[in-house]
Amino acid sequence: MNLFHRIKALCDEKDVSMSRLEQDTSLANGSIRKWEKAIPSADRLQKVAEYFNVSMDYLLGKTAFKKPTELFEHWSGHNNPYFESLFDFGGLLKEVREAQGISQKEVSEALNITESDVDDIEEGILPLNYEWAEKYANFLGTSVMQVFIDNGMCDSLDDIPLELLHHYQEQGMSETEMAIAYTKIKRAVEEDAVKEGTPELKPNADNKKPLKEFKFETYPVSKRVKVPIIGTVTAGPNGIAYEDYQGEEWVDTSLINSADLFYLRIKGDSMTGDGILPGDLALVQETPEVRYGALGVAIINGEEGTLKRVYQNDDSIILQSSNPKYPPRVFKKEEMGEVRIIGAVRMIVRNCY
């Protein structure tokens, strides 16, 4: 279904004619028919999107969801408390998919989502809860737990001491929950950070030593580098000015292979429809180019940088929030000079505190 037919379907749903749509949106009579073969300017497309209360990505067939809030509600839902990889697990699934020679198109057809949704999952832009991570993994012939095990992120059930395994089973925990919970305990032991009151665990019936007296063998998972956390970005006289330095955070180079990276601390609630909340960290690659409709960081009139979905073509730039209470900001022709795209968002890291 192309752009024209998607708009026609929306007209049928709303019971309005194409000519009425053109009249209500101040478009020339018959202009939408031409969109069957050519993509219109972003500002014209935005008018139609607002008329039907859908996103431009939906009109362009880049997502199966009519608006960002619907998309986030679909993906987020109830999440398993032991599954903490809402945004970065997609990169691990991508590795499995590519190793098996499976295309994003095959995944999109199996899960009934668009290829753009699949790409956003794998790039860490679209939040992925445990239920959908398991569906994705199952299609690839694996499971969430096995992906964790294969990447050295949790132990298998065979590694769990019998006494603790029985305790987990009594608690009604799933296999994934047991494996991840045990891994957390083991890592805490390695760091000598087991809290007071943790039961003494025996690796087997013949060995009576507490768990914290055992030395566990560890394996490097992948190379990591530290990336600065920035609270504010502005346009300085000699380029981009990074302000409000807040420390550093690790990033896994197996998931993100790029230089010129920084974390931007999210402020405000303009992107909550995409599951991006105040306090979250956006991993940004410094670049003046952002994929059409993707998340990017822009500076307007030299003011503080803002994170939005960016729709840019030759005659306009639209910065789109995903919270419906914030209208899109449209810059046409000569106004486009007021906007400077400084980075593309590569990953969102949830702030759980």
* Percentage beta strand: 15-25%
Oligomer type:
single chain
Please give the number of β-strands: 9
Biggest β-sheet: strands ordered side by side in the sheet? 2-1-3-4-9-5-6-7-8
Which percent bin holds the helix content?
A: 25-40%
Largest sheet: 9 strands, mixed
Q: List SSEs in N-to-C order.
A: HHHHHHHHHHHHEEEEEEEEE
User: Treating each run of at least 4 consecutive H or I residues as one helix, how many helices?
Assistant: 12
Distance between the termini: 43 Å
Q: What would the average pLDDT be, to the nearest integer? A: 76
Gyration radius, rounded = 24 Å
* Overall 3D form: globular
Uncertain runs with pLDDT below 50, 5 residues or more? 192-221
> Structural class from helices and strands?
alpha+beta
Q: Could you explain how this protein is built, in words?
A:
There is one protein chain. By secondary structure, the chain is α+β, with helices and mostly antiparallel strands. It has helices at 3-14, 18-24, 42-52, 56-59, 68-75, 89-99, 104-111, 115-122, 130-139, 144-150, 162-170, 175-190; strands spanning 224-236, 239-252, 261-265, 281-286, 295-300, 306-312, 316-320, 329-332, 339-349. Strands 2-1-3-4-9-5-6-7-8 form a 9-stranded mixed β-sheet, with helices on one face. Helix 7 packs across helix 8. The two termini are 43 Å apart. The relative contact order is 0.11. Mean pLDDT is 76; it is low at 192-221.
